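Issue: ligand-bound run for S-adenosylmethionine - logging full I/O for the record.

Environment: standard queue, default settings, no custom constraints.

Inputs:
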Amino acid sequence: MNDQEFRQLLNRYEFSWTGYRKVRKGVKKRIHRYMKSIECSNMASFLAELDKNDEIRHQCELLMTVSISRFFRDRGFWQGFKENILPEIMDVDREKIKFWSAGCACGEEVYSFKIIWNLLGHSYLHVPDLEVLATDINPIYLDRARSGIYPPSSLKEVTKEIRSRYFKQKGSKQLFEVKASLKKGITWTNHHLLSDPPGSDFDIIFLRNNVLTYYEDQLKKRAFSNVLESLAPCGILVLGSHETLPFETKDITGVAPYPFVFKKAKG
Ligand SMILES: C[S@@+](CC[C@H](N)C(=O)[O-])C[C@H]1O[C@@H](n2cnc3c(N)ncnc32)[C@H](O)[C@@H]1O
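Outputs:
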């Protein structure tokens, strides 16, 4: 499949070339394999199939998802999140904090969040209950997330202390599994970010490295509006470190020094 054909496919879904350019090799390979499995020999006939067969369209959309992630991706952010942002949220005397990881892939950022929460919890007399919702469009990634097993490359930002405290080594394959205590209290759910939000009044939402990178503007705006609507007043929204807001809005303001972290107005 050449780039021109791949771009035709992206256009069909309103996906962005800029977002897919660097990762296109692997995605093309998966799509090519799938085209073969359904006996489609060229892009024109594949596009025709996508138009008339919802199941094929859905399968192809899943194959186009990119699950690249790692624990504590954007390490500098996590440090500031733990030291400045999270304490401010916890300090308001509350019973419960609702966290949503939107487009959680195989769970790396969800477990990273739980590790930070756990570490911080040791310095507080009262720790609010934590409700964690982790959603993704791709059920295969959610299954991997539930299992909580990762190769060493996913842990390259994890310090030795954290590794020994929150992970156990699995067998001879050099894999690492998150400890059972971290897996508790997480709801993993299949959810498409263009559909209705899976909840409301979230205190913290992570929307990192998914729709704002891989979608074209119109879809970005739709998905982002849904997410914004489900953020609680004074809630924190974290985007990927290279991502920007798809439209200007007075509903949220930046949280310095991070250009990709925002706080919702009081309401
Ligand atoms: C590159 S990973 C990012 C994982 C994690 N948020 C991070 O920043 O490390 C992108 C994830 O977003 C998911 N995704 C893409 N489009 C989505 C959509 N429309 N609705 C829900 N999840 C989506 C993909 O399946 C993939 O697991």
